[in-house]
Amino acid sequence: MDVVLRPPTLADAAALAETHVRAWQVGYRGVLPDDFLAALSVENRYRQWRGWLDDATADHGGAIVADVDGVVRGFVLFGTWRDEDADPAVGELQALNVHPDAWGTGAGRALLQAADHGLAALGYGEAVLWVVTGNARARRFYEIDGWVPDGASKVDDRDAVPIPEVRYRKRFVAA
Description:
By secondary structure, this protein is of the alpha+beta class. The chain has helices at residues 13-27, 34-39, 42-54, 107-121, 136-144; strands spanning 3-6, 63-68, 71-80, 90-98, 126-132, 148-158, 161-171. β4 (90-98), α4 and β5 form a beta-alpha-beta unit. The longest helix is centred in the N-terminal third of the chain and has 15 residues, at 13-27.
C-alpha cells in the first residue's frame, strides 16, 4: 500500500469525518458504551471538519492527513498543550485516528512519526497525549514509539459519557 502524508485541504472534510467516526466506532467497541458510539454522526463531524478547514484564521500547521492508495484514511493533530495547567514548553499530540480499513497499512505509524518530527520542529523538547484508559491497542501503539504513562489521569465527559483517560509523555532527542 502506498501511504502519502500531506496537509489537509477543505476537499478532505468528508473523508476526515468518515475516518474520525469509524475509527472511534471500531476502536472503542467494548471500551465505550455502544449507544454512545452508534450516535456518533459522520454528518456532524463533517460540519466540524469543514468549518475548521474553511476557517482562514485557524492554524492548520499541526495537521497532517494520510492518503492510502489515494484515499484519505488517517489524520494527526498536534501543537500547543491544551490543558489549563499546561507547561507552555511542552507540546501535545492532540488526536490521531486511522480508518479501520487502513489499520495495518503503516498509515498510523507514519502519522505518529510525522507528529513527533512536527512537535520537535515547533521547538518542543517533549510532548503529552491523552489516551482512553481501556484502549489497549492505542496504548500499545504509543508505547512502541516510546511514549510512557506519566501518572496523570482524568475523566473527559462527552455527551454525559465519562471517558477515563491516562496521559502519556515523550521526550524528543535533538537532531
